[in-house]
Model the fold of this input.
Amino acid sequence: MNNDLREALKKKVSEKIDALTSDLVAISHDIHAHPEENWVEYHAHRVLTEMVSDNGVRVERSAYDVETAFAAEVGSQGPTVAVLCEYDALPGIGHACGHNIIAAAGMGAGLALASVAEEAGGRVRLLGTPAEEGGGGKIEMARKGAFDGVDAAMMVHPSDEDNARINALAVQHVLATYVGQAAHASMAPHLGKNALDAAVLGYMNIAALRQHILPTERIHGVFLRGGDKPNIVPKETEMDWYVRSATFESLQELKKRVAACLEAGAHGTGCHCKLEWVKNPFADMKDNAPLLGAYAANSAQFGRVFSTEPTPWIAGASTDMGNVSYLVPSIHPMLAVAPKGVSLHTPEFAEHAISAAGTKAIVDGAKIMAMTAIDVWASASLREQMLDDFGDGAVPEGVL
Ligand SMILES: [Zn+2]
Ligand SMILES: [Zn+2]
Done:
Protein backbone atom coordinates (compact mmCIF):
# COMPACT_ATOMS: atom_id res chain seq x y z
CA MET A 1 0.00 0.00 0.00
CA ASN A 2 1.43 3.40 -0.90
CA ASN A 3 1.73 6.19 1.64
CA ASP A 4 -0.98 8.36 0.12
CA LEU A 5 -3.55 5.60 0.45
CA ARG A 6 -2.41 4.83 3.99
CA GLU A 7 -2.84 8.48 5.01
CA ALA A 8 -6.21 8.69 3.22
CA LEU A 9 -7.43 5.63 5.11
CA LYS A 10 -6.25 7.09 8.42
CA LYS A 11 -8.17 10.27 7.66
CA LYS A 12 -11.27 8.24 6.83
CA VAL A 13 -11.24 6.24 10.06
CA SER A 14 -10.65 9.41 12.02
CA GLU A 15 -13.67 11.07 10.43
CA LYS A 16 -15.77 7.95 11.00
CA ILE A 17 -14.88 8.02 14.71
CA ASP A 18 -15.76 11.74 14.87
CA ALA A 19 -19.17 10.86 13.41
CA LEU A 20 -19.63 8.07 15.97
CA THR A 21 -18.48 10.07 18.98
CA SER A 22 -21.85 10.89 20.52
CA ASP A 23 -22.92 7.22 20.26
CA LEU A 24 -19.61 6.05 21.72
CA VAL A 25 -19.87 8.39 24.68
CA ALA A 26 -23.50 7.39 25.21
CA ILE A 27 -22.64 3.70 25.32
CA SER A 28 -19.69 4.35 27.64
CA HIS A 29 -21.93 6.21 30.08
CA ASP A 30 -24.66 3.56 29.75
CA ILE A 31 -22.25 0.74 30.63
CA HIS A 32 -20.85 2.87 33.47
CA ALA A 33 -24.38 3.34 34.85
CA HIS A 34 -25.01 -0.44 34.74
CA PRO A 35 -21.93 -1.99 36.36
CA GLU A 36 -21.84 -5.77 35.99
CA GLU A 37 -19.30 -8.20 37.39
CA ASN A 38 -17.39 -11.07 35.82
CA TRP A 39 -19.31 -13.29 33.41
CA VAL A 40 -22.72 -11.59 33.96
CA GLU A 41 -22.20 -8.51 31.76
CA TYR A 42 -25.62 -9.03 30.14
CA HIS A 43 -26.54 -5.37 29.76
CA ALA A 44 -23.18 -4.40 28.28
CA HIS A 45 -23.30 -7.43 25.98
CA ARG A 46 -26.74 -6.41 24.73
CA VAL A 47 -26.04 -2.72 24.10
CA LEU A 48 -22.64 -3.32 22.52
CA THR A 49 -23.86 -6.01 20.15
CA GLU A 50 -26.85 -3.85 19.22
CA MET A 51 -24.52 -1.00 18.37
CA VAL A 52 -22.44 -3.25 16.11
CA SER A 53 -25.47 -4.52 14.20
CA ASP A 54 -27.07 -1.05 14.09
CA ASN A 55 -23.96 0.00 12.19
CA GLY A 56 -24.53 -2.66 9.57
CA VAL A 57 -21.93 -5.14 10.82
CA ARG A 58 -22.90 -8.76 11.47
CA VAL A 59 -22.19 -9.68 15.06
CA GLU A 60 -21.95 -13.05 16.74
CA ARG A 61 -23.42 -12.97 20.25
CA SER A 62 -22.07 -15.35 22.95
CA ALA A 63 -19.09 -15.94 20.67
CA TYR A 64 -16.59 -18.74 21.32
CA ASP A 65 -18.99 -20.39 23.78
CA VAL A 66 -18.70 -17.53 26.29
CA GLU A 67 -22.16 -16.20 27.08
CA THR A 68 -21.29 -12.52 27.40
CA ALA A 69 -18.62 -12.43 24.68
CA PHE A 70 -19.15 -11.23 21.13
CA ALA A 71 -17.27 -11.14 17.85
CA ALA A 72 -17.61 -9.32 14.56
CA GLU A 73 -15.26 -9.77 11.62
CA VAL A 74 -15.09 -7.64 8.50
CA GLY A 75 -12.79 -7.96 5.50
CA SER A 76 -12.15 -10.77 3.07
CA GLN A 77 -8.39 -10.67 2.64
CA GLY A 78 -5.13 -9.49 4.14
CA PRO A 79 -3.79 -9.34 7.70
CA THR A 80 -6.19 -9.61 10.64
CA VAL A 81 -6.14 -7.09 13.47
CA ALA A 82 -8.13 -7.88 16.62
CA VAL A 83 -9.49 -4.95 18.63
CA LEU A 84 -10.69 -5.84 22.12
CA CYS A 85 -13.49 -4.43 24.26
CA GLU A 86 -13.66 -5.09 28.01
CA TYR A 87 -16.78 -4.15 29.96
CA ASP A 88 -16.85 -5.84 33.35
CA ALA A 89 -16.94 -3.88 36.61
CA LEU A 90 -15.90 -4.36 40.24
CA PRO A 91 -18.00 -5.28 43.27
CA GLY A 92 -19.08 -2.25 45.28
CA ILE A 93 -17.13 0.36 43.30
CA GLY A 94 -18.57 -0.19 39.83
CA HIS A 95 -16.49 0.98 36.87
CA ALA A 96 -13.49 1.90 38.98
CA CYS A 97 -11.26 0.28 36.35
CA GLY A 98 -12.94 2.29 33.58
CA HIS A 99 -13.72 -0.67 31.32
CA ASN A 100 -16.60 1.37 29.89
CA ILE A 101 -13.90 3.44 28.17
CA ILE A 102 -12.16 0.30 26.86
CA ALA A 103 -15.47 -0.88 25.40
CA ALA A 104 -16.27 2.44 23.72
CA ALA A 105 -12.76 2.99 22.34
CA GLY A 106 -12.66 -0.56 20.99
CA MET A 107 -16.10 -0.14 19.47
CA GLY A 108 -15.04 3.10 17.75
CA ALA A 109 -11.87 1.57 16.34
CA GLY A 110 -13.65 -1.62 15.29
CA LEU A 111 -16.51 0.10 13.46
CA ALA A 112 -14.19 2.61 11.78
CA LEU A 113 -11.90 -0.18 10.57
CA ALA A 114 -14.90 -2.20 9.40
CA SER A 115 -15.94 0.74 7.20
CA VAL A 116 -12.63 0.68 5.27
CA ALA A 117 -11.52 -2.96 5.54
CA GLU A 118 -12.49 -4.03 2.01
CA GLU A 119 -10.98 -0.94 0.44
CA ALA A 120 -7.80 -1.35 2.48
CA GLY A 121 -7.43 -5.07 1.90
CA GLY A 122 -7.33 -5.92 5.60
CA ARG A 123 -9.45 -7.72 8.15
CA VAL A 124 -10.64 -6.50 11.53
CA ARG A 125 -11.97 -8.77 14.28
CA LEU A 126 -13.82 -6.84 16.98
CA LEU A 127 -13.95 -8.94 20.14
CA GLY A 128 -16.06 -8.39 23.23
CA THR A 129 -14.04 -9.98 26.03
CA PRO A 130 -15.81 -10.31 29.39
CA ALA A 131 -14.50 -11.15 32.85
CA GLU A 132 -11.12 -9.42 32.97
CA GLU A 133 -11.35 -8.67 36.70
CA GLY A 134 -10.55 -12.27 37.57
CA GLY A 135 -12.12 -15.00 35.51
CA GLY A 136 -10.24 -14.66 32.27
CA GLY A 137 -12.76 -14.26 29.45
CA LYS A 138 -9.97 -13.82 26.89
CA ILE A 139 -8.42 -17.13 27.96
CA GLU A 140 -11.70 -19.02 27.59
CA MET A 141 -12.25 -17.37 24.20
CA ALA A 142 -8.68 -18.09 23.08
CA ARG A 143 -9.18 -21.81 23.82
CA LYS A 144 -12.05 -21.75 21.34
CA GLY A 145 -10.03 -20.02 18.62
CA ALA A 146 -10.74 -16.30 19.13
CA PHE A 147 -7.15 -15.39 18.25
CA ASP A 148 -6.55 -17.96 15.52
CA GLY A 149 -5.29 -16.23 12.40
CA VAL A 150 -4.81 -12.91 14.21
CA ASP A 151 -1.70 -10.90 13.21
CA ALA A 152 -2.01 -8.22 15.91
CA ALA A 153 -4.22 -7.70 18.97
CA MET A 154 -4.76 -4.39 20.71
CA MET A 155 -6.81 -2.61 23.33
CA VAL A 156 -6.42 0.56 25.40
CA HIS A 157 -6.94 0.91 29.15
CA PRO A 158 -7.69 4.14 31.06
CA SER A 159 -5.20 5.25 33.69
CA ASP A 160 -3.81 8.28 35.50
CA GLU A 161 -1.22 8.89 32.78
CA ASP A 162 -0.44 8.04 29.17
CA ASN A 163 1.78 5.01 29.09
CA ALA A 164 2.96 2.48 26.56
CA ARG A 165 2.67 -0.44 28.94
CA ILE A 166 0.66 -1.74 31.85
CA ASN A 167 3.67 -3.72 33.20
CA ALA A 168 1.29 -6.54 33.96
CA LEU A 169 2.50 -9.28 36.27
CA ALA A 170 1.55 -12.92 35.94
CA VAL A 171 -0.94 -13.86 38.65
CA GLN A 172 -2.21 -17.08 40.18
CA HIS A 173 -5.25 -17.11 42.41
CA VAL A 174 -5.21 -19.74 45.18
CA LEU A 175 -7.76 -20.76 47.80
CA ALA A 176 -6.37 -22.32 50.98
CA THR A 177 -8.69 -24.41 53.14
CA TYR A 178 -7.59 -25.72 56.55
CA VAL A 179 -9.41 -28.54 58.30
CA GLY A 180 -8.82 -29.39 61.94
CA GLN A 181 -10.90 -30.82 64.78
CA ALA A 182 -13.69 -29.01 66.63
CA ALA A 183 -13.78 -29.15 70.44
CA HIS A 184 -15.08 -27.10 73.36
CA ALA A 185 -12.60 -24.27 73.55
CA SER A 186 -12.64 -24.18 77.37
CA MET A 187 -13.63 -27.66 78.54
CA ALA A 188 -11.56 -29.67 76.09
CA PRO A 189 -9.19 -27.53 74.02
CA HIS A 190 -6.66 -30.38 74.16
CA LEU A 191 -9.02 -32.39 71.92
CA GLY A 192 -9.14 -29.68 69.27
CA LYS A 193 -7.02 -29.02 66.22
CA ASN A 194 -7.30 -25.33 65.51
CA ALA A 195 -7.82 -24.53 61.83
CA LEU A 196 -7.72 -20.80 62.56
CA ASP A 197 -4.27 -21.14 64.14
CA ALA A 198 -3.22 -23.04 61.03
CA ALA A 199 -4.44 -20.24 58.76
CA VAL A 200 -2.91 -17.49 60.92
CA LEU A 201 0.45 -19.29 60.90
CA GLY A 202 0.18 -19.72 57.12
CA TYR A 203 -0.53 -15.99 56.82
CA MET A 204 2.43 -15.11 59.04
CA ASN A 205 4.75 -17.39 57.06
CA ILE A 206 3.83 -15.47 53.92
CA ALA A 207 4.27 -12.16 55.75
CA ALA A 208 7.86 -13.28 56.49
CA LEU A 209 8.37 -14.49 52.92
CA ARG A 210 7.36 -11.09 51.53
CA GLN A 211 10.62 -9.55 52.81
CA HIS A 212 12.56 -11.90 50.54
CA ILE A 213 10.87 -11.75 47.16
CA LEU A 214 11.62 -9.55 44.15
CA PRO A 215 10.22 -6.01 43.88
CA THR A 216 8.15 -7.27 40.95
CA GLU A 217 6.51 -9.96 43.07
CA ARG A 218 3.38 -9.53 45.14
CA ILE A 219 1.54 -11.90 47.47
CA HIS A 220 -1.66 -10.67 49.07
CA GLY A 221 -4.55 -12.43 50.72
CA VAL A 222 -7.62 -12.23 52.93
CA PHE A 223 -9.40 -14.52 55.38
CA LEU A 224 -12.74 -15.73 54.03
CA ARG A 225 -13.75 -17.89 56.99
CA GLY A 226 -12.19 -17.84 60.43
CA GLY A 227 -14.45 -20.02 62.54
CA ASP A 228 -17.99 -19.74 63.91
CA LYS A 229 -17.89 -19.00 67.64
CA PRO A 230 -15.12 -18.38 70.16
CA ASN A 231 -16.17 -21.34 72.33
CA ILE A 232 -15.73 -23.80 69.47
CA VAL A 233 -12.18 -24.60 68.35
CA PRO A 234 -12.40 -23.65 64.64
CA LYS A 235 -12.70 -26.78 62.53
CA GLU A 236 -12.50 -25.24 59.09
CA THR A 237 -11.08 -21.96 57.80
CA GLU A 238 -10.39 -20.50 54.39
CA MET A 239 -8.10 -17.88 52.88
CA ASP A 240 -7.99 -16.33 49.42
CA TRP A 241 -4.60 -15.32 47.93
CA TYR A 242 -3.17 -13.76 44.78
CA VAL A 243 0.43 -14.65 43.91
CA ARG A 244 2.08 -12.38 41.32
CA SER A 245 5.43 -12.46 39.58
CA ALA A 246 7.10 -10.74 36.64
CA THR A 247 6.72 -13.68 34.25
CA PHE A 248 4.61 -16.78 33.99
CA GLU A 249 7.79 -18.82 34.37
CA SER A 250 9.01 -17.11 37.56
CA LEU A 251 5.47 -17.36 38.94
CA GLN A 252 5.80 -21.15 39.03
CA GLU A 253 8.78 -20.89 41.42
CA LEU A 254 7.02 -18.39 43.67
CA LYS A 255 3.94 -20.63 43.84
CA LYS A 256 6.08 -23.38 45.40
CA ARG A 257 7.33 -21.01 48.12
CA VAL A 258 3.81 -19.81 48.85
CA ALA A 259 2.52 -23.39 49.02
CA ALA A 260 5.26 -24.27 51.52
CA CYS A 261 4.28 -21.29 53.73
CA LEU A 262 0.59 -22.17 53.69
CA GLU A 263 1.14 -25.89 54.26
CA ALA A 264 3.55 -25.22 57.14
CA GLY A 265 0.68 -23.64 59.07
CA ALA A 266 -1.16 -26.94 58.85
CA HIS A 267 1.87 -29.02 59.83
CA GLY A 268 2.41 -27.00 62.99
CA THR A 269 -1.15 -27.41 64.19
CA GLY A 270 -1.96 -30.94 63.10
CA CYS A 271 -4.49 -29.72 60.56
CA HIS A 272 -4.91 -30.53 56.90
CA CYS A 273 -4.38 -27.90 54.22
CA LYS A 274 -5.93 -28.04 50.78
CA LEU A 275 -4.74 -25.62 48.11
CA GLU A 276 -6.95 -24.95 45.12
CA TRP A 277 -5.04 -23.25 42.31
CA VAL A 278 -7.91 -21.46 40.58
CA LYS A 279 -8.15 -21.97 36.81
CA ASN A 280 -7.15 -19.40 34.21
CA PRO A 281 -4.03 -17.86 35.79
CA PHE A 282 -3.11 -14.62 34.01
CA ALA A 283 0.23 -14.43 32.21
CA ASP A 284 2.49 -11.36 32.21
CA MET A 285 2.06 -8.94 29.30
CA LYS A 286 4.66 -9.31 26.54
CA ASP A 287 4.26 -6.02 24.70
CA ASN A 288 5.16 -6.25 21.03
CA ALA A 289 7.79 -3.50 20.55
CA PRO A 290 7.30 -2.71 16.82
CA LEU A 291 3.51 -2.64 17.22
CA LEU A 292 3.91 -0.41 20.26
CA GLY A 293 6.23 1.83 18.21
CA ALA A 294 3.51 2.23 15.56
CA TYR A 295 0.95 2.99 18.26
CA ALA A 296 3.24 5.60 19.86
CA ALA A 297 3.88 7.27 16.49
CA ASN A 298 0.13 7.61 15.89
CA SER A 299 -0.47 8.71 19.47
CA ALA A 300 1.91 11.68 19.36
CA GLN A 301 -0.40 13.77 17.13
CA PHE A 302 -3.00 13.65 19.93
CA GLY A 303 -0.52 15.11 22.40
CA ARG A 304 -0.12 11.74 24.08
CA VAL A 305 3.65 11.26 24.16
CA PHE A 306 5.40 8.60 26.18
CA SER A 307 8.46 6.39 26.22
CA THR A 308 8.10 2.95 24.74
CA GLU A 309 11.14 1.63 26.61
CA PRO A 310 10.46 -1.26 28.97
CA THR A 311 10.48 -0.46 32.70
CA PRO A 312 11.45 -3.84 34.09
CA TRP A 313 11.29 -3.06 37.82
CA ILE A 314 7.84 -1.53 37.84
CA ALA A 315 5.09 -3.84 39.07
CA GLY A 316 1.69 -3.23 37.57
CA ALA A 317 -1.63 -4.99 37.88
CA SER A 318 -2.47 -8.16 35.96
CA THR A 319 -4.66 -8.82 32.94
CA ASP A 320 -5.80 -11.73 30.78
CA MET A 321 -4.47 -9.68 27.84
CA GLY A 322 -1.15 -11.11 29.06
CA ASN A 323 -2.25 -14.58 27.96
CA VAL A 324 -3.24 -13.14 24.57
CA SER A 325 0.24 -11.60 24.27
CA TYR A 326 1.75 -15.11 24.42
CA LEU A 327 -0.46 -16.16 21.47
CA VAL A 328 -0.20 -13.22 19.04
CA PRO A 329 1.70 -9.89 18.89
CA SER A 330 -0.20 -7.65 21.31
CA ILE A 331 -0.21 -4.26 23.03
CA HIS A 332 -2.08 -2.87 26.04
CA PRO A 333 -1.30 0.88 26.25
CA MET A 334 -2.70 3.13 28.96
CA LEU A 335 -4.58 6.39 28.34
CA ALA A 336 -4.77 9.23 30.86
CA VAL A 337 -8.30 10.00 32.04
CA ALA A 338 -7.54 10.98 35.64
CA PRO A 339 -4.99 13.25 37.35
CA LYS A 340 -1.68 11.60 38.20
CA GLY A 341 -1.93 9.66 41.43
CA VAL A 342 -5.59 8.69 41.18
CA SER A 343 -5.40 4.91 41.40
CA LEU A 344 -7.42 2.41 39.44
CA HIS A 345 -9.92 0.48 41.57
CA THR A 346 -10.97 3.49 43.64
CA PRO A 347 -14.33 5.32 43.70
CA GLU A 348 -12.48 8.47 42.57
CA PHE A 349 -11.30 6.72 39.43
CA ALA A 350 -14.85 5.59 38.66
CA GLU A 351 -15.87 9.26 38.52
CA HIS A 352 -13.08 10.09 36.08
CA ALA A 353 -14.26 7.23 33.84
CA ILE A 354 -17.23 9.40 32.79
CA SER A 355 -15.41 12.75 32.73
CA ALA A 356 -14.54 14.97 29.76
CA ALA A 357 -11.06 13.44 29.89
CA GLY A 358 -12.78 10.06 29.62
CA THR A 359 -14.54 11.19 26.44
CA LYS A 360 -11.24 12.40 24.99
CA ALA A 361 -9.64 9.05 25.83
CA ILE A 362 -12.42 7.19 23.98
CA VAL A 363 -11.97 9.29 20.84
CA ASP A 364 -8.16 9.36 20.95
CA GLY A 365 -7.92 5.69 21.84
CA ALA A 366 -10.26 4.67 19.01
CA LYS A 367 -8.37 6.79 16.48
CA ILE A 368 -4.89 5.72 17.58
CA MET A 369 -5.87 2.03 17.50
CA ALA A 370 -7.56 2.36 14.10
CA MET A 371 -4.55 4.17 12.62
CA THR A 372 -2.19 1.58 14.08
CA ALA A 373 -4.29 -1.21 12.58
CA ILE A 374 -4.01 0.51 9.21
CA ASP A 375 -0.22 0.53 9.63
CA VAL A 376 -0.37 -3.23 10.26
CA TRP A 377 -2.52 -3.74 7.18
CA ALA A 378 -0.34 -1.44 5.06
CA SER A 379 3.19 -2.45 5.98
CA ALA A 380 4.65 -5.89 5.36
CA SER A 381 7.89 -4.76 6.96
CA LEU A 382 6.08 -3.76 10.17
CA ARG A 383 4.44 -7.19 10.25
CA GLU A 384 7.80 -8.84 9.73
CA GLN A 385 9.35 -6.85 12.59
CA MET A 386 6.39 -7.73 14.79
CA LEU A 387 6.91 -11.43 14.12
CA ASP A 388 10.66 -11.15 14.80
CA ASP A 389 9.92 -9.50 18.14
CA PHE A 390 7.22 -12.05 18.95
CA GLY A 391 9.70 -14.90 18.68
CA ASP A 392 8.93 -18.58 18.35
CA GLY A 393 5.41 -18.34 19.75
CA ALA A 394 6.02 -21.04 22.35
CA VAL A 395 3.14 -21.04 24.83
CA PRO A 396 4.08 -22.31 28.32
CA GLU A 397 1.78 -24.90 29.81
CA GLY A 398 -0.97 -23.19 31.78
CA VAL A 399 -1.09 -19.98 29.71
CA LEU A 400 -3.90 -21.47 27.61
ZN1 LIG B 1 -9.05 -3.60 37.09
ZN1 LIG C 1 -9.00 -2.91 34.04
About this structure: The longest helix spans residues 3-33. The chain has two domains: 3-168+282-390, 170-277. The chain has a mean pLDDT of 97. The CA atoms of residues 183 and 358 lie 57 Å apart.
